[in-house]
Amino acid sequence: MVIKRQNKPPQAAALRQILRRCSGLGREKAEEEGLPVDVPKGHFVVYVGKNRSRFIVPISYLDHPEFQGLLRQAEEEFGFEHHMGLTIPCDEVVFRSLTSALR
């Protein structure tokens, strides 16, 4: 059995870059660059659904396989190389249900 490797940059590196842009780390720099300052330390912003509703979620969600599945869907549909924020391609109700189960 041969395991096929993809020639994509590591997902972890892309996530770190997104988190730097979207998290509450480095507020002074965020203010200078026009990034959101209402995001608490240890959290990041995602946009969900057709209306791109904004959610602030804890970084700890990145450890959960269910949330990682959503990130893979986001990567497949939108990629991580855009400046529109991290968009999760699922219905808002589904996202709320998933995140409430992760708490």
UniProtKB/TrEMBL annotation:
Q: Which parts of the chain are coiled coil? A: none
What domain of life does the UniProt record list for this protein's source? Eukaryota
Supply one GO BP term. Answer: response to auxin
Record family assignment = Belongs to the ARG7 family.
Name this polypeptide is given: Auxin-induced protein
Source organism per entry reads Musa troglodytarum (fe'i banana)
